[in-house]
Amino acid sequence: MGVKQYKPTSAGRRAGMVSDFADCTTPRANSPEKKLLKPKKKKGGRNNQGIVTSRFRGGGHKQRYRVIDFKRKRDDVAATVISVEYDPNRTSRIALIEYPRDEKHDFSRAYILAPNGLKAGDKVISGEGDAVEPKPGNCMPLWKVPLGMTVHNVELVPGKGGQICRSAGCGAVLTAREKEWAQLTMPSGEIRRVSSKCRATIGVVSNAEHMNISIGKAGRMRWKGRKPHNRGTTMNPTDHPMGGGEGRTAGGRNPCSKTGVPAKGGKTRHKRKPGGKAIIRRRPAGRFQNTA
């Protein structure tokens, strides 16, 4: 697992970096499990009414979605890791695991998020039994996880499946437990309270070097489906609150989005959002603190 930089044969190659895919089992072969693939339709940032809700989206390479098992509900059955693969839909690697065949399940393979250090041939298991040990790749409820361990793919609602700490290099530290609640320190520095019945996977998400990759040229962002970003100060007053004016201007007001939402310093989270009660301490303002 690392970053590769080519010789500067062109302007785009000079600053561009790519992953060396050393953590993948077969780096040069991209052959995902066909039964775990779904078509991924492009929306161009538009909703069901055709209105653009996410600006500067469109184009990009054709992709197929890999169905990931975020719930890990097949308990007390050890699965073997077949391979660690690249997934174009996320920054982390995914692992193809295979369960022993039985009468209840016709298909015995599944994709999971690959933690750091997981490789082909390893065994992973989920559940609450004594056979489930706190080692990378195993999934268990938070009341069973030892204090001080780093977990990922954490549920917010028991049985709903992992929702937080799923991107490359992320991991939350289980710092305390009190009655029916567990206290997690998030990668941003935020301290959050989660039910002890929620499940989490042991370890840190793989491909932590993803943050060090330099795109190198604008064309690579177009491959990813990202179109050029147009600043609000370059627009007309009818198109953006910060538009208009003679010559280059600072916008004439505090930075904001096209709909007037503050972009720097203003709070955008809903005051009465249900999940806000679970936050014990907010993340430090103005900086990103990675504790993974």
TrEMBL record:
> Which InterPro entries would you find in this protein's record?
NA-bd_OB-fold, Rib_uL2_dom2, Ribosomal_uL2, Ribosomal_uL2_bac/org-type, Ribosomal_uL2_C, Ribosomal_uL2_CS, Ribosomal_uL2_dom3, Ribosomal_uL2_RNA-bd_dom
Biased-composition ranges, Basic residues, are 219-230, 266-285
- Per its UniProt record, what Pfam families does this chain match? Ribosomal_L2_C, Ribosomal_L2_N
Q: Which residues form the Large ribosomal subunit protein uL2 C-terminal domain?
A: 134-262
Q: Which UniProt keywords apply?
A: Ribonucleoprotein, Ribosomal protein, RNA-binding, rRNA-binding
- SMART domains with a match to the protein in the record: Ribosomal_L2, Ribosomal_L2_C
One record GO biological process: cytoplasmic translation
* Ranges where the record places region Disordered: 1-56, 219-292
Could you name the Gene Ontology cellular component terms for this entry?
A: large ribosomal subunit
The UniProt GO MF terms for this protein read:
rRNA binding; structural constituent of ribosome; transferase activity
Q: Where is the Large ribosomal subunit protein uL2 RNA-binding domain?
A: 45-126
Oligomeric state and interaction partners are given as: Part of the 50S ribosomal subunit. Forms a bridge to the 30S subunit in the 70S ribosome.
Q: Which family does it belong to?
A: Belongs to the universal ribosomal protein uL2 family.
Q: What's this protein's function?
A: One of the primary rRNA binding proteins. Required for association of the 30S and 50S subunits to form the 70S ribosome, for tRNA binding and peptide bond formation. It has been suggested to have peptidyltransferase activity; this is somewhat controversial. Makes several contacts with the 16S rRNA in the 70S ribosome.
Record-given protein name: Large ribosomal subunit protein uL2
Instruction: Provide the organism lineage as a comma list.
Output: Bacteria, Pseudomonadati, Planctomycetota, Planctomycetia, Gemmatales
What is this protein's gene name? rplB
